[in-house]
Structure formats: C-alpha cells, structure tokens
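REQUEST ID: PR-0412
SUBMITTED BY: lab tech R.K.
PRIORITY: routine
TASK: structure prediction, single protein chain
INPUT:
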Amino acid sequence: MEPVTQALLGAATAELVAGKKLRGRALGWGAVIGMSPDLDVLLGPLHDGYGGWLYHRGTTHSLWFGFVFGPLLGYLLWRWRDFGREDTLAGWIRIGIFALLTHPLLDGFTPYGTQFFAPFDRARFAWNGVAIVDPAYSLLLAAGVFMAARRSLPEATRKRALHLGVTLSTAYLLVGLYVNHQIVSDLRKQLEPLFGRLERVRAYPTILQPWTRGFVARADDAIVVGLHSWQEWDCPAWRVHPRLAASPALEAVNAAWQTKMMRWHADEDVATFVHSEPGGVLRVRLEDVRYSWASPDARGAWGVEARVTEAGELLGDPVRFPRQTPTNREALDRIGSVLMGHLPGPGDGWTRPKECAEATTGPEPGS
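STATUS: complete
OUTPUT:
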C-alpha cells in the first residue's frame, strides 16, 4: 500500500496496543513507524537500478523484522521520550512490534508481492485482495483514526470508533480475497474450454475500486491476458500472447541475471515479444503483464529488453524499460472506462465469449 495508508494502519494499530498511558501519542509514532519499512526504496539504484525489484518489500517487510527490531525501536523511543517511567516501556515495545508487523501483512494483500522471509528466502507472497491504492480501505481506516484523535470525545467513544474502523477495513480486505477467488473460478470455467488445461490463473486488482480485475492465465501455448468485471459476470475480455518455442536466442536472454530477476519479480507472469532487425539480429522484449489492464493491447507495464543474434549471442546486457505512463486524453478515458467496469470488445481487438460480444456490439445495421 502507499505511504498514507500504511501510516493510518500503523497509527491505528499502535493506538490499540499501546495501553492507556500512551494513548494519543501512540497515533503519531505508530504512523511514523508504520511507514518506515518503505525506506527500502532508497536501495533502488543498486545493481544498475534493479535494486528496487530486489530490495523493495524485502528484508524490512519480512515477518521476523518487526519482532527483532520492534522491541529495539520501542526501547529507544522509551529512552528518548519516557526514560524513567517504567510503566510505559512495555507499551512502547508493543508499538514498535505491531506497527512494523502490520505493514508487510497489509502489503501481502496487494499484487506487488512481499518477501515475508527475506533475506533468507526470496519467495514473494501476493494474495491479490486489493490494489496498492484503494480509497475505500483507506477511508475506513482514516475515519477510525480521525475519531481516535479527537481528544474532545469521551475515551470510550474514541476507542469504539477506532475498533470499528480497523474491523471494517480488515473485513474489506477479506472481501477482496473472496472476490478474487470467485473471479479466478469463473475465469477457469470460461477459458479452459477454449485453451485447455490452464497452468495457472491469477486475477489482479485494478486501482480505486474492487469490482474490476485484470488477469493472466497461462495455457500450454499461450499467455491469456485480460479483464474481468463483476458487472458482466461470465463475460471476461482478453488478448492472447503466444508462448514462444525455445531457441538459442531466447535461452541466451533468459540466462542473463537481469532477465531472471525480472521474471522472479513478475512471478513468471511474463509475455515475450521478438522483433527481427537487419543482419540476423533479434530484439527480445519481456514484459510484466500483471498490470496490463491499463494497456489497450494488454502489454506489460515494464520489463527488460535485449538484442541478441539468432545463434544466441547477446549484444549487450538486457536493459530495463520504464513504466509506460498514458498521457493523452483518449488513453486516460479508456482507463477510466475500464475502471468503471466497461470492458473492451472485438471492436477494440479484444476477444469475449460469443454471447457477450454480441450483447456488447448489438445486431448489424439492417438485420
């Protein structure tokens, strides 16, 4: 989640666990500590710029980090703010532990992926319940924190409001998991008759709302990338990217550490595109298609690109290409339409189940 929401969760959690003697102060310090794991973005320039993929949501987001550094951080804050008051030490330690621990747990609900056991194990966990920006979740938390900060209200009222905000926002996360489970089940029902056994299906939240999801389905010979909306159940829209056969050129590109890191970061939801250049040179582009919902042709938001000969000789290291940001009005209007649940159809170059496409396009003129 973005920093403001992490600050709200840290504030709410700290206020709930700190104890009566730290009430009020816990809100501010919980907010600061709750955001602090994201300082790992400062490591982004390492490894020729690949540090952002490797280290963000890494060690500072591991489950053990809060239990090890939380007590130390709480003790240091106690020494600074409350030294000599033995009755608040335990409260400060609880603030440190829980504000650090809830940060990676919340990030685990998003599609980016969180390394819960880094640096000992770099496996990425992503439950795909909500997007990295979700106003509904943030507003529920913000309402509870706002009421808790109102010192003019009775303490019991502030506490009940905070409990309610945390309970409702947590319920919202769980609803997101249920939505994702139902969408994945529906996608298998719709796609397997067309593509055969699917190796894996993942649905990814889009931003600002819970009802439209992007998805990536891996079949034996294709990567199926598309959109699913609760407003049109049983009617996903998709585009197909072929899974390319092995070749010396592709093997050489995939053997590079830059490519391996990109595939790991994307959890293998990667589409590969090859373009021929003069002189027997191939330009190979691997794209992370988890966030392809914003693309009119279901292409990836970022990835790596390499030039290689047909014989498998790399002409330089693979290089990252940055996030593609839509800027023109037409692209922004299309994204807004998708976020409202209006999926593209055959007229846009996307495929939909026959009955859905007919309902979308309507009868031919004069029929």
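NOTES: Residues 3-127 form one domain.
REVIEWED BY: pending
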